[in-house]
Design a protein that fits this description.
Elements lengths: L2 E4 L4 E4 L10 E2 L2 E2 H10 L7 E4 L12 E4 L1 H6 L3 H5 L14 E3 L5 E3 H8 L2
Antiparallel strand pairs: 1-2, 3-4, 5-6, 7-8
Length: 117
């Protein structure tokens, strides 16, 4: 899979084809799903992958979180995303929050850990 690291926000941005909705497209599936399943196994039944960064072509595993469709819909609201106090790994976002151009909230500590720093 061909991705390019966005060093500011920690996204692994898909460099191949995009589908009409802006998601990376790999074979017959969306690239972020292929990346997730290759490393972590199938997305649990009844859940979808939420892009914490709100960047549809991001394949960074630490930016993907399996959630219910209902939770995914709630997270489309900036007000809802802005209220999160911790990232999925439990890091406090008060001092670790980074806001992507699309309005996503990512954790700087998770980004550092993913880069091995």
């Amino acid at each position: 899979m061909s991705t390019k690291l966005d060093e500011v926000f920690g996204c692994q941005l898909w460099q191949g084809k995009l589908d009409p909705d802006g998601y990376g497209y790999h074979g017959r599936s969306r690239a972020h799903i292929v990346a997730y399943e290759a490393e972590l196994g199938p997305v649990p039944d009844g859940l979808v992958l939420d892009h914490l960064c709100r960047r549809r072509n991001c394949c960074a595993l630490h930016h993907l979180e399996p959630v219910t469709q209902s939770e995914n819909e709630k997270r489309k609201s900036w007000r809802y995303r802005a209220r999160r106090a911790t990232c999925p790994k439990g890091h406090g976002l008060a001092s670790n929050r980074a806001i992507t151009p699309e309005g996503g909230v990512v954790c700087r500590q998770c980004n550092r850990e993913a880069e091995g720093k």
